[in-house]
Every structure is written in C-alpha cells, then in structure tokens.
Amino acid sequence: MKKVLVLGGTRFFGKKLVERLVGEGAGVTIVTRGNVPDPFGGAVTRLQADRTDKAALSRLLGSSSFDVVYDNICYTPQEAEDAIALFADRTGKYIVTSSLSVYPFGEERLSERDFDPYRYPLPHPLPPKGDYAEGKRLVEAVVFQKAPFPAAAVRFPIVLGHDDYTRRLHFHIEHVQDGQPLGIPNPGAKMSFIRSDEAAAFLAWLGRSELAGPVNACSKGEISPGEIVSFISEAVGKPADIVSETEQIHMSPFGVPEPWYMDTEKAEAAGFAFEQLNDWLPDLIREIAAGRSK
Fold first, then answer.
1. Exposed (0-12), middle (13-18) or buried (19+): which is 113, by Cβ within 10 Å?
2. Distance between CA atoms of residues 103 and 284, nearest Å
3. What residues pair up with 28 in beta bridges, in sequence order?
4. Which of 127, 188, 199, 291 could form a disulfide with 13 if both were Cys (CB 3.0 to 4.6 A apart)?
5. CATH classification (class only), 3-158+194-216
6. H/E run at residue 274
7. Distance CA 84, CA 88 (A)
8. H or E stretch including 4?
9. Separation between Cα atoms, residue 146 and residue 213, nearest integer Å
10. Which among 56, 211, 210, 77 has a CA at the least distance from the CA of 139?
11. Which part of the chain is the NAD-dependent epimerase/dehydratase domain (predicted)?
12. Measuring CA to CA, which residue among 67, 59, 70, 74 is closest to residue 90?
C-alpha cells in the first residue's frame, strides 16, 4: 500500500485529493490544525499540528516515512526550507502546489521555461510572508535548489468549483444577479482555469508519475473575464454592468491587466489528458446560479 502524507487536505481540491487517494487504496495521513472538520472518518490518519510549527510536526512524524508528500499550503521560502528539513529522509517524492502567479502577464502562452526556479536568486535572510506571487517563486527556488529528494511544483491557475472557499466565480454570478457593477480592467484578456476535481485528479496522477520539476496544469482552452460574464448573463437572464474602474469591493478577482494563460505540453507529453474548459465551465456557472436563485 502506498503511504501518502497531505498537508492541506481538508478543503477544496486538497480535500478532493484525499478522497481520490483513499479511493485508490493509499494509506493517507493528513496534517491538520483541527479547525476544519473533514469527512474521512477512519479512512485517514490525522496529525494535529500547525505546519509552521516545525518542531511539533517533527515530533508527530516520528520515524514515519512516505512514498509521496503533497504540500498544498506552502507559501513562504521558510516553510519550504522547513519542509526540506522535515522530509529529507521521509519521502520518495515531494509535490508542492505552486501557481500561475510565478509568471508575468503577457500575450504569449506561458511554458515552464518562462520561470526558472533552479537559477532564481535566493535572498539571505529569507523574507517573511509577503507578496503571494513572489512567495511562490521563492518556494519553488528553495525546493529545486536545495531538496535532496525528487520534487515537483504544480503551477495551477485560478481553481474553480462549487467548493471554492474564496468564492471567486460566485462573486461574479452574485454581482450580475444583484445588478452590481463588475470592475474588469481588461475584459478580453485570455486566462487559464482548472476545476477543483481536475486539480485533484492531476495531483493524484502526478504522485504515480515519474514527472518532476515545475509543471503547468490547467484545462484545455482559454477564456476571458468578459466571456465568463457573458455566460453568467445568459445563465441568470440579466445583463452585466462591466466597468473598468469601481470601488475595490466590486473589482473582479479575474481582473488581470493582460492575458495570463499556460501551455500544458509537458504534462500532456507525460500522459495526462486535461479536460476541455468549455466542457465544464458553462455547466458550473449554471449550477451555481441556479443554487443561489432557489
């Protein structure tokens, strides 16, 4: 039985990942602070700790080792350094969730070579938690420059789903339903997205794969914020009020200044088949809209 440790496995795609791993027959241990209840019952082992408390987590891990460690909640270079120290003799592969945010905006489709964590400068001392995008760049740099074990960093775009606790797609649907302005600086900017179920499926697959290094993961096809809002308007039967500037509380979380979309050739060449964006996004919009209107 494969032994797997998951940090960040009690909500959103991390929760779906654990469900998949349990369904595949893996022996799953989750690290949780105990603040969020989980539905796994006796199917998983729980270690109650804050991942930022390296000493406490080390004591709980004891002499345990794992075939794969998934780290969905690593946001700072110090957390990455702590993970390397914790898992140096405890894992066969380390998979950290990274982000499209490591890349700049621009017209070109982004591939893994557009950000090189193997040569990215590491400051001394390591900075505390700050800018999200820079934090993810430094996390990757620490992992790929210092880890003694095989590692992969999954660069996800914005992840969408019914269970998105940040409610980014819900935000747009609610604004259109309520007739509120939507601040979108560039409605035509192409963007990548991925569904929470697909993100979990990709992570589970990557744990079985030999693929390592940075890897992009997103659904096939791009869509602009303006096109998303058009789908929403059709679903709710109301026009959208799109403006370039408005109060901050009405500014879209999809409001990028330029296109921001990824190439997935590396993952596809290794054998993963991504879903078509248009096969799930319009349905998701309709389902969320219908759920709110009940």
1. exposed
2. 27
3. 4, 44
4. 199
5. alpha beta
6. none
7. 6
8. strand 3-7
9. 13
10. 77
11. 4-206
12. 67
Instruction: Count H helices and E strands in the chain, helices first.
Output: 9, 11
Rounded to two decimals, what is the model's pTM? Answer: 0.96
Cα atoms in the Cβ-side hemisphere of radius 13 Å centred on 10: 16
Burial of 134 (0-12, 13-18, 19+ CB in 10 A): middle
What is the Cα–Cα distance from 193 to 221, expressed in whole angstroms?
Answer: 9
Place of tokens 């601040």: 183
C-alpha–C-alpha distance, residues 38 and 29, integer Å: 13
Give 243-292 pLDDT, tens digit per residue. Answer: 999 999 999 999 999 999 999 999 999 999 999 999 999 999 999 999 87
Q: Over the stretch 87-108, which tens digit does the pLDDT of each residue have? A: 999 999 999 999 999 999 999 9
φ, ψ dihedrals at 31, nearest 5°:
-95, 120
**What is the Cα 11 distance to its own chain's centre?**
12
Given the structure tokens 């702590």, which residue do they identify? 82
3-state secondary structure at position 203: helix
Q: Would you kindly state where each structural domain of the chain is located, as residue ranges? A: 3-158+194-216, 163-192+222-259+276-293
